[in-house]
## 1
Amino acid sequence: MFEAQAKDPKVANRTFLLLPPDASNANQQTAWTYAEAYEMILRYAAWLKEEHNIRKDEVVAMDFTNKPQFLWMWFALWSLGATPAFINTNLRDKAFIHSVRVSTGRILFVDPSIREVLSEHATSELAASNEGRGIETVVLEETTEQDIHQRTPYRAPNEARSGKKMKDSALLIYTSGTTGLPKAAHVPWDKPRSTSMGVGKILQLTPSDRFFSAMPLYHTAASLLCVCSTIGIGCTYVMSPRFSPRTFMRQAAETEATVMQYIGEMCRYLTVSPPTPYDRAHKLRIAFGNGLRQDVWQPFKDRFALDTIIELYGATEGIGATVNVSRNTFSRGAIGRTALLSGIINNMGQALLKFDHEADEPLRDPKTGLCSRSAYNEPGEFVAKLDAKAIKDKFLGYLGNEKATNSKILRDVFQKGDAWYRTGDLLRQDSEGRLWFVDRIGDTYRWKGENVSTAEVSEALGSHPAVREANVYGVELPGHDGRAGCAALLLRDGQTLDESLRRDLAAHVRKQLPKYAVPLFLRLVKGELEITGTVKQTKVQLRNEGVDPESVGEDEVLWLPTLESYELFGKKDWQALVSGQAKL
């Protein structure tokens, strides 16, 4: 498809890749046409074949930040019939070594700007990997790039790519690693194909559009949903090197972008950032992405004068997706909409299953052993139908991790022998056909016999004017069943958690939430909350540290001994809980 665009006289001289003015060094190229990009890809292909003997069907690991070389390397590998493995550029040491090893590749190409990933320890570990053969590491130095640019373009014969099927792996993209070491998810060929042909239609892209993304290319959002959809239409991909609330809207305005990509937390950061001259001095008409919270949705849309928000729900390795094209307030905050005539989403090979929060599994009938569908407005796990006799036709799972792959497959759901893909997400659908995200399974916790959604609590706290960010999770307490709610907080600049604010926060959450969902603990974070490279909050370490004042470093912990006000929680208070003298 890319080659066809590059050779089409109507498209060849159209801009494919555009960098914001401040995204490259002075005197460096900032724009490439489809024809220029195609030639560059073929020069990289020549280098990969001639210098490194990259062959059909082999996996090749690449660890690159957002820069043109990422694209040239990616498509050059595809042109040779190889399978790229996109390493998360934020990984270091154990997680980095693990991810490269899991790829099964014999070679790793590294961006020189992050050469520190190749520490002495990492290099020696990788050299001893891969069944004794060792993994070669190559940093793409400036002299190497100069060599590549002098190569004669090499267009591999069609046989180099022949034999592939839509269900075969096109890419390896890694999970975020928020619950352990990253897993290498197979991305079958039908994913880039469907996004290149379908996303552009959803967004109503035209050849004159400029699609702006600051998301990392190692993630599906930028690589598939943005780059591949751009190629499908023949329009322009505007690549920011990284997300920054300070520069995002300026870059969008300066590049005359018409469509922007988001992850929900990005929108919140942008909405609470100081005003800029570019807030409305831009050409953006659509914001497209996933995870935009309901409390942020309208303020974000209003501040930046956006006509349309398109929220997409899906997963890198999963099947089943929903979309919400929203121009008014009816579906504000929803992750999808279905026509009432089609009924619940079950009619589309997707379903919401009643859920057992004690077992963290869909609820099964004790007599039949089968599952049942959630009612309207009842949260349930979102699942998508698989062919029980040919699971891999739709779901390839995780490379080298059969346990994790099997954990995503649910059998005997509505009838004996059937199979469904588990998303691990709780959603609910209302009687108006709107679909809402409730929580990630494992994030929802149980307290006082009730199920508490971390997303709901986070949204309530985030709506307080003094709160910049809230990361909510459940913590175990001595002598108490279930998990008590705790929120790691960052306050806005100039705010202090004095007596007045402590009382106001308590009153605010009491008003916003049912009594059982009111967070009993607050953890005032001194630095920044940890996030993944795709701007998602991490909870595992916070959850493991709990609320013992000895375990939270320099952070302060507060608790709600009465419903009137949050108070400092010290060693004596912790000991009272441990001894059973204090009960919540």
## 2
Amino acid sequence: MNHMTNPYIPYKAKIEQIIQETSSQDLDVKTYKIRLLVNNDENPNTPISFMPGQFVEFSIPGTGECPFGFASILREDGCFDITIKRTGKVTNRIHALNEGSDVWIRGPFGNTFPLKQMETSDLLIIAGGIGLAPLRPVIQYVLTDSNRPNYGKIDILLAARSSADRCFTYDYESWSNVNKTSVLQTIDKEEVGWTGLVGFPHNLVRNISADTKNLYAILCGPPIMIKAVQETLSSMGLPPEKIYTTLEMRMTCGVGKCAKCNIGHQYICIDGPVFSMAELSKMPDEY
């Protein structure tokens, strides 16, 4: 979880693979499999070390950099995934890159989901759209053979505007095949040929059998979704200190210097990006 020597210095990396996630006309999301090209006296071939919830700064020299949460755990081959939605100058430039292109990575930064604290409990993981990207490392972590026995029942609710807006669809079957794990999919409106659920997550979560006395919830998605789901979970008896989310709003520098991500006296990049709802309740209502 330590920085690769200096948090201000980016390290050269290579795009090993690019996966087009979405197929809708107005939402362009790609996943990049990244390999660090670290080979010097201080870090001879040392892969990056991180935990679910942390993020990196992704740099394109001459264009700029943006913060992105890890979208996978560290692979056995030393690579990791970053999932990026095309929204502006830097992300447009990233989306124009090809497999084999060199990029620059700085980090890792931020805190992590308290997965050790959640052991022995049931987990409810709810993601909206690209909000699944920072939760995918959580899912991969808890579903590994060595970690799965440490948790109770795991329910995963995946929401998207439409079937064309879904991400990581190639993972869903393997996740649902893990013991005591369910994967539910929902979209906003009916579609021809759609066999999953229809509706917003806060209206569906009550249908998931959950023991709120032995449950942690992990949420990520649009702010309106997070707030609506939190209100439903609270009405079901789940305390705010057992509901977690990750915020990547307005982050830029990653080291608390630019002050663009502050909420009250907190900085998302150095105090987060993972917070419990109990922690957020003490902050100005800006997230």
## 3
Amino acid sequence: MVKALDRKLFRDLARLRGQVLAIAVVVAVGVATVVITHGSYRSLLLARDAYFTSYRFADIFAHLVRAPEAIGTRVAAVPGVATVETRVVVDVLLDVPDLPEPATGRLVSIPARGRPALNDIYLRSGRFPDPNSGREVLASEAFAEANHLRPGSRLAAIINGRRQMLEIVGVALSPEFVYEIQGGGTWLPDNRRFGILWMRRNVLAATFDMRGAFNDVSLTLAPGSDTADVIARVDRLLAPYGGLGAYGHDEQISARFLRDELAQNRVSGTIVPAIFLGVAAFLLNVVLARLMATERTQIGVLKAFGYTDFTIGLHYLELALVALAVGAVLGIGLGVWLGRIVNATYAEFYRFPSFPYRFDVMAVLIGIGISAAAAVVGAIGAVRRASALPPAEAMRPEPPPHYRPGPIERLGLHRLLSPAGRIVLRNLERRPLKASLSALGVAFAAAILVVGYFSFDSLEALIDLQFRQVQRDDLTVVFAQPRPAGVVYDLAHLPGVMRVEPFRAVPARVRIGHRSRRVAISGVLPDGRLRRLIDARHHEVRLPSGGAVLTTKLAEVLGARTGDTLTIEILEGTRAVRRVAVAGVVDEPIGLSVYMERSALAHLLHEGLTVSGAYLAVDPARMDRLLTRLKELPAVAGSARRGAALSSFNDTIGRSIGVVTTILVLSASAIAVAVIYNSARIALSERARELASLRVLGFTRDETARMLLGEQMVQAAIGTPIGLVLGYGFSWALAMNYQWEMFRIPLVVSSRTYAFAVIVVALAALATAAVVRRRVHRLDLVSALKTGE
């Protein structure tokens, strides 16, 4: 049998369906952000850990020029080393079908028989290469998909100066290349122009005269081993053979990018839900408290009929929890759906054998618990205040506040307003707390709109800074080995080349105190126009004749300041150690770099003016001819077009952030509309009797509607600017989270974003005004004026 209070609950839900739905939307968005962010983090973390464990991702890596296989045996004998695998790894130039410019292929050896002991191969399709075939290779999945290659496809490679056809017999993945980045100063993936090709060890070694030798080694550690000690011992063993410095998996470029992504997901998975759930909790508390306050008369009637305070409180709490339950169900469903979309986006450039979506139950329960606590506090507080009154007094409507002139009236400014305007002014002045809470609700709505949209501004600023102000070349050419300075004249005579700016790049480990990083030191022209150095204010920086200039993030990581001494261990040749002064800091949003004037770097290396590559300005009409010519030059290891790099950025980092940002913008817009709608509907419920009285006194429908809507517009006008300031603060908190070593998102909030927030709030207010105006016009004067006495 349905109890009387249950019937009342059903009637209240039907009567308040608009407010209940708006509350549910606020809860749903808060819960959905938890599901999306925590689900993305958990999915990525579990996929990485499972892949690295199952396919034996190495703990330490090292690259060298050439060492006999016996050295690998000595590496295996180092205390703490569990497993060692030596390899041959060589970068070659590729001529890929339908790709105008040359691509770079990294040939990685796999055992002549069987599978790798470390960094094992997951075969997505096809088969492993035949040990007796000299041209069969496996291709990495990202490279194959980007170039529409499949088992049976063929591509040409320039190997030892000769053009050789390679046949792809399988498409594969490796934990070493979950995120395919070329490295060597390149920090962005370009799957069309860089890929991994696996070839049998016996074939690759014979091709590059590496029989009985290796130039790359990876190893795992025994439990309890000292990683730093093992790296130091391995480094000493390999140094005589051109070792470039052993490093742990935390510095391996693909794993490092994954680590940064996980760190960002973990922090943003806390900050973003905290902002959304915090706003939702505040709004739930305020909205439900005001909603329950309008039920004061009904609470008095229930008390007169003998219902206890506990029973009444439980009844209204059920009303709040129904809205919460609807919101939680919607939020979980919406979050899982959108979470799968985000996960699918990640899966396009994080290459795992399996990347299932993981639902984080505990995080969702915490989010629902926060919303439930806010609902309980909001509902119980209002019920307790009404229940504290005797039934006879509670059944009367709440008495109006005592009249007293407000600040504006004391100044006499109220005379400038119409009678309706004076009523709006007095209502706001006499209920300052209620008006402030309503304005704060609008402020939070505007704030989360700014938070949702600012990432678009930051991405545009990053693209402009990196690809228009810093990188101004049309094409970057990299040589397989450093070349004499005269190569600049050869480049200048290539078709379409209008300007050549050479550079020298050398791998190094830079250190200040106990802090160190592996970076590329670039020696560039002091007055270069194609690769500019700029400071934090985007002013051009001229390289000093001596000393090193660090990028801002590297200076932060090392704790470096201008004037400090930087220790540089050159990771090529004799592995010389040099010390230079930190001459300044430049601002670049991508990667970690050290810059020196070209002749100063040559002096540091004790060598002549050699060239690792060059930045080229090219006639667009002759670009295709130039790219075709570059494919024929064996000295060229690779090339990169600035336009291609920008497209790669948009396709990877820009796209992933864009998907998440679009979801946040839509979520923020939904909250803004729900907040403003609820505020106006509750105000109408609170003021129904007063508006009816004004109608009886002779005010028209439009006049009474303008009085109510005038209050809402004033609150929106006050709350919106406050929200823009709050939004900037929230955006700052998020931007600080996007300061990775690989790339940094600058804090930029444009006038477009502020305009977007204002427009959405204004449209929500206008749409709500239309609904409220219609309800005021349909107001039943007799029902509204009944007092229950």
## 4
Amino acid sequence: MSGSPLSEQGGRHGGDPWPGRLEDAALLEGRAGFTDDLRLAGQAAAVFVRSPHASARIRSIDASAALGTPGTLAVLTGDDMAAAGVGNISQLRPFPGRGGAMLRIPQRPALARERVRHVGEPVALVIAESEGEALDAAELVSLDYEPLAAVVDLHDAVAPGAPQIWPEVPGNLALDWSSAATKDDSNAREVERSFAAAALVARLTLASQRLVVASLEPRGAVASYDAASDSLTLHAGSQGAQVLRDQLIGALGMPAEKLRVLTGDVGGGFGMKTSGYPEYAALLVAARKLGRPVRWASSRSEAFVSDNQARDSVTEAALALDRDGRFLALRVAALANMGAYLTSHGAFIATHNFARCFPIVYDVPHIDVSVRCVFTNTLPVGPYRGAGRPEANYVMERLVEEAARVSGIDPIELRRRNMIATAMMPYRTAVGATFDSGAFAAILDEALRQADYAGFRERRRSSERAGRRRGIGVSSFLEHAGGAPTEPAEIAFPGDGTVRVGLAVQAIGQGHASVFRRLAAREFCLNEAQVALVQGDSRLGLAGMGTVASRSATMAGTAIHGAVARVLAKGRRVAALALEAAEADITFARGFFAIAGTDRRLSLFEVAERAVELKASGEIAETLDTRETAQVSQTFPNGCHVAEVEIDPETGRVTLAAYTAVDDCGVALDEVIVEGQVQGGIAQGVGQALLEHAVYDRQSGQLLAGSFMDYAMPRADDLPRLAGTLHAVPCRTNPLGVKGVGEAGTTGALAAVMNAVADALPAGHALDMPATPEKVWRACRAVEAKKP
């Protein structure tokens, strides 16, 4: 988002040069500590044997040859996991669907015993002195499979007579869910009446394809066991050590105090590193069995068939309009692929997260969203940047373009005519969300101005003269951010002249140490060097949800703000006792408590030391160390993105010629980090729109796009200069005024790019994602073939 007013003010943060990120030096100099950097004394190496079949019975496992190889220490199977008491890796709360029927949660094993249900499912764990020896031994584990019919396509999975993934789940239907279903279905009936009375109806069917997350750092873990305390420790990249710990103790059936999870630096997560995985439970069992640390590092090839994947849904949508183009009602029906097992958030994302976005920035009185969550013989689907919000916004903005076509109303005018006005805030939607703030029409106008929308016709004519097709696409979007409404923070004074800020959220690349250190320093009136951030340790005992749902700045920031306020309130009482003054006369400024109107004062750290002494003597009940749990409503980041593409009809290549983004994330705690978050999200959205697709063979269930030779990721030369600004409308539901921003770029990008592609193609040739050169070339050739 370079070129914005943010970079034209001669600096940021009140005119001072941007101080940079605390994290950068260690990352750039190779001093960061990722899971793969960890080496524990006496550690062994682990390799997983994985299923080559998408669906098969396991007749037998013979590990005798593997156990006879040099350096091999053990081979564990599903029987060992059962003997160790490992239960269901799928740890999630069921929730109801239509008619009160609950989400079906089948048993996901740490190592498969009788049946495998997707390619790459772990079947055995080989532990040896070195990784090379473990790999050699893994080749000798003999497995006898009985292949079974597999089903990977959504429509195939719900067709009559489809192969059943789970015998206890008829029709492969994990959940049939509806946002409109109440006891009397009144909202659903209102939707039906609105469609019956509508002058016009726009309809479309869209697919959001299966994606591989492909974080820069593959997963890995080191498990260790301490016999003296009979406790386990897991070092693993995660999006919240406490969250991962809680999932694993549920699967392992062990007390919370017997498992510690530690997370160091994390090379990207995007939601994929939220869930507990079978490998982690198996490694912990192995560490206890062997009495020594066990290390596993996923290869990139392994990650393609073992990490949670994303998206994979097909949606039918219809929008009812009156004769003036006013939106009357929206009906959305989706099929969502869960894969072979449920992840911690997969079904929730496909239902609640998806539905809660509607009607994005538009005033639609009646809405009915229904989703069928379906099991298939594919990798489980979990959260990925946006987690249901990009899919919803994509559907709505493509539908608005279709409504413009059927009504004959200019698409920009149609948007303006139906946008929720600022004066309507707070706005309660038909699916129960309440938008507290927003300036949707102003943001649309600003994006169009920055993108030079008015000059597009001349640019299109210029492209046509060069034999190219040019299109422009607009995406006005809104998402919800926040997830679970509570999040803790801890302020502690270790006695070394620093303030320690403990958090349950986990940095996975965003710059938490910089943002939260700066926030605490600002509120305490301290130098940033006097504040230290502590995270990534379940032993902190901070029960938070972790880094998901673009919630960290809002939730943890508010918790820090509240904790600081409590520290200062306690500090005034302590300072009053120490200075022999009335508490009402104590002020705090520049890091010092002072008696108003005098030079008698104590520093924050001196007061913290006095508090320890006073508590020891019984004069006060607690020190300045403070834990605060913030309870914060969801926020609703929004914006407008405009993409411009140019197509070469001879090759089908789509070039993203220009991209403009205007985003409302409320108050930006760090404008440069916000810009980076938006740009990163846009890149991932462009990847889905134009390049990425995890293709499975429809018959065998094999992942055909199982490496970077076949799975296309966006590169620097796929992106133009990303221009944009922040249009801040402060949030009204938290004291910092912030809204989430981590996923906004992806949410806005899908429809912006695909609307631009549709605008460039001949009428009637809109495509599903990804708009690959082959698809685009065929659409262009179809028109050429019709010419006389």
